[in-house]
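Model: You mentioned two targets. I'll fold them one after the other.
Researcher: Yes, keep them separate.
Model: Target one:
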Amino acid sequence: MRTLFVALLGGAAVAAVVVSVLVSPWWWSAAGPLTALLLLAVRDLLQKRHAVLRNYPVVGRLRFVLEAIRPEVQQYFVERDFDGRPFDRSVRSIVYERAEGTDAEEPFGTELDLYDSGREFLVPSMSPCQVAEEPPRVRIGGPDCTQPYDMALLNVSAMSFGSLSANAVLALNTGAALGGFAHDTGEGGISEYHQRPGGDLIWEIGTGYFGCRTEDGGFDERAFAEKAARPQVKCVSLKLSQGAKPGIGGVLPGTKVTAEIAAVRGVPQGRTVISPAYHQVFGTPRELVRFLARMRELAGGKPTGFKLCVGSRRQFLAVCKAMIDENVTPDFILVDGAEGGTGAAPLEFADHMGMPLTEGLLTVHNALLGTGLRDRIRIGAAGKVATGSDLVKRLLQGADFTNSARAMMFAVGCIQAQRCHTNTCPTGVATQDARRARALHVGDKSQRVRRYQEATVRSALQIMAVMGVDDPAQLRPHMLRRRMDAQTVRSYAELHPQLEPGRLLKGPPDAWAEDWYAADPDRFTV
C-alpha cells in the first residue's frame, strides 16, 4: 500500500507538471504541492528514525502533528499512558526522550495531586552522597552454581520471537550487547536474531518447551543441554506463569506463525500456538525443585531460576519448604507482576488474575528471609518498570535487579497501537509481516535501546544518591512512603513488616502462621 501510495502521488505530480507546461501555467498551483508531497514521501521512506513514516509516508505525519499540539487539545484528545498520566507527562514520553538522548529537566513543578491517597514518594536525605560512577551489577549464582553471572540493574524482559519481529529482536539484542545488559528470550526459543548480535541471553523455558521440545511436546534434555551450553546463554529460566495471564501459558496467533517461527518453536506453521497451562515435568513443589536442579546440571552449572506471577503465599511457602528439604535452591527467582503486559491474552486474565508486583515481590522477599534462604537466591522484578524511580522502588521492596518489556518496546518504536495480535503493527515491532517489519531500522533502534537503559539506570543512581545511598544494598523499606489519606503517611517498613532471617523456622508470626503450617512441599494447595 505504501508503494502504491507513493506511485500514485508520483504519477499525479508528474501529470500536473506536464499539464502545467503543455496546457496552462495555472496547473502549477497543483503541481507544486504534489511535487513537494512526493519529495516528502521519498524522504519518509528513506529516513531511519521513525518506523511509522517508513510504513505510512506523509500520512503518518498526522500523528506527530497531534503530538506537537497536544497541550492545546487536551480537552478533546487525551491519550493516557500505562501509568494513568496524560500523554504529555507520560512514561512513554520519558522513554522516548531517553532513547533519543534528549532527556532533560522540565520547567515548573509537578502536575500531580501530592495529597492523593495511595501516592508514593521516596525520602531524600539531608546529606546526599556522590553518584556512583559505574553502575553496580548483581552476582547471580548460589552455592550450586559454577558459572555465576553479573546481572545489570535493568534488563530486557521476556518477549518472544514470534510475538516480536525479527528486526525488533535484533534491535533489542544489539542494544543489550552495546550496553552490557541481559536479554530474556521469552518462551519462544532462541532464534538466529537473538544470537547474531552477541548480547547476553537469559533463555526462558515455558510449558511448551520451545527450542527443547520432543515431538509429543515434552522436555528434551539433549536439545536443552546443547543450546544451554552456548556461551551467549548466561542463565536459564523456567517460566511457571506470566503476570498478564497467569495459568494459561503463551498465545501466538496463527497469522504470526511463519515457517521460520514454526522451525524455531517446533510447531506447525500457520496454526495458533497455545502453551499448556501446566508443566509436564513436575506436579509438586518438591518435583519443581528437583527439576530446577536437573536443569542447572544440564546447563553446565549456569545460573538457573524460575519466573512466576505470585497468586498464593501458601504455595510459595510450600516451594520454600521443598527447597529446605531437598537442600536445593534456584539461583534467582523472577517475580512478574499482574500489571505486566502481553501481546495476546483474555482480558479477564489480564484484569483479574495474580498479585500486583508490589505484593508479589514483598511476599517472595519475606518468605525467603523467613526461611533463611534469601542470601542464596537473587530476586528479579518485572511489571511496568520504566523509570529510575520505578527501579529504586523495586529494589527497596526486595528486588536485586529489574526487567522491562513495555518500555524497551517503546525504545524500539512501539506506539501502543494495540494491534500486536493482528500482525498489522504499524511500527514493525510486533508483527511477522516482513513488509511492515523492515520499516524498523535495527541500527537506529538498537542505539535507542542502549541509550534508554543507560539513562534509566543513571537516573536510578542519581535518585539513590539524593537519598544518601551509594549502593542498592543500602536501600531500606522505610525510605519509601505512601500517603494513606490527607493526614496520614506510612513507610513501607510500617505497612509491610519485614521478617527476620529464619523467623518462620523458629516460629512464624501470627500473620504468617496459617499459611506456613498449611504449606505442603508435596502438593500445591491454595
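Model: Target two:
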Amino acid sequence: MSKPDLTELLHAAVEAVGGTERPGQVQMAQAVADAVTEGSHLLVQAGTGTGKSLGYLVPVLAQGDRAVIATATLALQRQLVERDLPRTVEALHPSLRRRPEFAMLKGRSNYLCLHRLHEGVPQDEEEGLFDPFESAAPTSKLGQDLLRLRDWSDETGTGDRDDLSPGVSDRAWSQVSVSARECLGATRCPYGEECFAEAARERARLAEVVVTNHALLAIDAIEGAPVLPSHDVLVVDEAHELVSRVTGVATGELTPGSVARAVRRTSRLVDEKAADRLRSASETFERLMELMLPGRLEEVPEDLGYALATLRDAARLCLTALGETRDRSVQDEDAVRKQARASMENVHDVAERLALASPYDVLWCERHDRWGASLKVAPLSVSGMLREKLFADRSVVLTSATLKLGGDFDGVGASLGLAPEGRRALRAQQAQESEEEERAEGDSEEEAPRWSGLDVGSPFDYRKQGILYVARHLSPPGREPSRSDMLEELSDLVQAAGGRTLGLFSSMRAAQTAAEDLRGRLDLPILLQGEDTLGELIRSFAEDARTCLFGTLSLWQGVDVPGVNCQLVVMDRIPFPRPDDPLMSARQKAVEDGGGNGFMAVAAHHAALLMAQGAGRLVRAAGDRGVVAVLDPRLERARYGGFLRASMPDFWYTTDRNQVRRSLAAIDRAAGAEA
C-alpha cells in the first residue's frame, strides 16, 4: 500500500481544526518529515499564525514513530491534548488506517496523592489545618481548600491539578501531593492501584504520542533515571524557553528553613548520635547564613565551606541511619520515613555540590525580606548537558516563533550545545577524513549532532501591519526606573493610541512608577500586574479597548490579545539582565575568558529573545495593526542595536516621533470606526 501524501494529510488536518493552510506550515511539515526519516535534528522558526502545531503533529503521526512533545506553557499543552490531537487523529484516520493513542504526562507532584489525602501529612506540617473540636468544619481558607480537594478526589478521573477549577493555593496543594522522592511507590502504597500519577504513566507508556512539559523533559535528561517512555522523536515547542527551564531544574537551593525542616522530619527516626550531629550542623549553618551578604561567591569562604561539609556529612550519616532503624510507634511510618529521606537527600546533595564548588557551577547568596538568606548553585552552562542527553538516540525538532536571533540560529544553537551553522560542513568533512584513524585508535571524539535551521516565515505582512519606533531623542536609561522624558513620551503615545497599550517593563518598580504617573496624567484605565491575578488582568485588558496593561516578565511572553484592543506595545528599555545577576554575569565572564564576546553571547542574546517575544505581542492576526515603541535610544545608537532589531519582526522602522503619533491616531480612528 502506498504511503499517504504528506500534503494531503496536512490539508485534512487543517480542515479538521478549522484552520487555514499556510505555505510556511507546508514547508515546515516537509522539513520535520525529512528530519524524522533521516534521524537528524531540526530548528524551525515559525512565526505567529503559521500553525506550527500541525506543522509537526501531522508528519510525526504519519511517520508512526513513538514521539514526545514538550511544551513550556499549560495553554499549549491543553490545546494539543484537548483540540489539535483529537481532531488531527480523526482527520488522518481514513488515510493512515489507524488512530494513534496520545496522552499527557507531568511530574508526580502535579497529581493528587490519595495516600496523602486520606492518611494525612507528616506531623510537622499538619498542625493548624482544622479546628480539632470541629474537624469537619475548616477554620481557614486552607481548610476550605482541603475539603474541596477531598470532594474533588471523588469526581476527577485524572487527579491532575490543572483540571481543578477554580484552583487552590500552592500551600493547599502541597498537603495532598508528593514529589517523586516522597512517593512510597505503587507496590508499597495502599492506594497504589488507584494512583493518579501511576495511571498517567501507564497511559503514557501505551501511547504513541506523549505531551509533557519542559521541566519533566529536563528531569528525564538530567537525573539519569528515565521518567518519560522510550521514544524515537522529540519535539520541543516553545523551544526558546528550554535553556532557562533546564537551568531551573538543575539549580539547587539550601536555606536554614529547609535544613530545619529536614532536621524535624529526621531526628525522631534516627539514633540520638546521628540526630545530635545533624542538629549541631544545622545550627552552625543557620548562624553563618545570618551573616551572609547577597551576591556571587567566586570562592566558598573557609567557615562556610566547613559548615557545608559538616552538614553534608551529618546528612549522609542520617540517611544511613534511616535505613537501619525502625520505629513502629510512629504512625504511618513508611510515609513519614519517605518524606524525611527526601528532605535529607536534598540537603545532602545540595550541600555536597556547594561544598565542592565545581568550576562548572555558579554559587551565590540571595536575601529575601520574608524568607531570609538562601544559597543557590546552578550550572555555568547547560549546553554540554543538552548536547549529550537531548540529541542522542532520537531525532529532535525544536520550534518557536523566536529562534533566529540577530539573523541566524547560531546563538540559540550554541545555547543548546549545537555547533554554529557555518562550521557544520567543516566538522562533517573533518569527521569523515579522520573516521578510519579514530576507529583504529579506538578513541573517537564525540561527534557533534547534525542539525539544520529553517525559517518558514509568517503569514503576516509585518511591514504593512506594524511600525517599530525607537525614541532616539530620549536620554539613555540609567539605574533609576523613573525617567521624566520617558514618562512624558509614554504618556503622549498612549494618549495618541487612545489606550490599547501593553506596557512591557524591565522591572516591577519601573512598571509601578509608570502606572502611577500615567494614572495622574490620563483619563484611561491603567491596569498593573500584581493588582489582580494575571488571567483576570489580561481578560480585562482584552475586553476594553481604552484600557492599558503594564507589567514585567510574564507579560513579555504571555499575552495573546488579537484585534483593536492591543495596538501599541511599549518597551521602556532594552531588557538586558541585571549587571548583578550572578548566573548571567558568570556566563558572560566565561565566554570572555574563552576569547569570545561575552556581552553579545549572553546579555544581548537574553535581550534579543525577550524583545522578539515582546514585539510578537502586537500582531496576532491578519487584520492587526499597530506600533511597537522602544523608549531606549540605544536600540538606534548602539552598535548592538542592529543585532537586536534583526531579532524582532520585520516591522516598518522609524525614529520620527511625529510620524508615529499620526499613525497611532489614524489607527485609533479606524479602530473606533470598526467598533
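Researcher: Noted. Anything on target two?
Model: Residues 125-137, 422-445 have pLDDT under 50 and may be disordered.
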